[in-house]
Specification:
Helices cover 48% and strands 17% of the residues. By secondary structure, the chain is an alpha+beta fold.
Length: 122
């Protein structure tokens, strides 16, 4: 049995994901744009991305992309192991960021107390 090319496999995976996320009926063919029930229009940018224009909290229109990245096959780990590894790495980074933020907040509080004590002493 011939192996199907990476390009065809990845394109199929992306199409399946976008169809599921956006609840698209692709049986009729390729869909290039659709509008949600609340009036937001999503447009197909390419086989890897969909785009949407949204207004941010500052009232500025922003172009946002929804993309699907298909990870390379690995010989040293399964797809499930790779996914768990990336989740674990993200969680470690978030914990590190939270610890650093707590340290900065503690230092800021100590600096503020030191400044206030200095002002009272002068």
């Amino acid at each position: 049995m011939a192996k199907i090319s990476k390009n065809i496999v990845d394109t199929d995976l992306r199409a399946r994901i976008f169809s599921e996320i956006f609840e698209l009926d692709t049986e009729a063919g390729t869909i290039d744009a659709f509008t949600t029930d609340n009036g937001t229009e999503y447009r197909r940018i390419n086989d890897r991305q969909w785009g949407v224009i949204l207004t941010d909290k500052n009232g500025v229109e922003r172009y946002c992309r929804v993309g699907v990245i298909v990870a390379e096959e690995r010989e040293d780990m399964t797809a499930r192991e790779l996914m768990q590894k990336e989740i674990d790495e993200y969680n470690v980074k978030q914990e590190s960021k939270a610890a650093k933020a707590a340290e900065r907040a503690k230092k800021a509080e100590a600096d503020k107390a030191r400044r206030e004590a200095k002002e009272k002493g002068e």
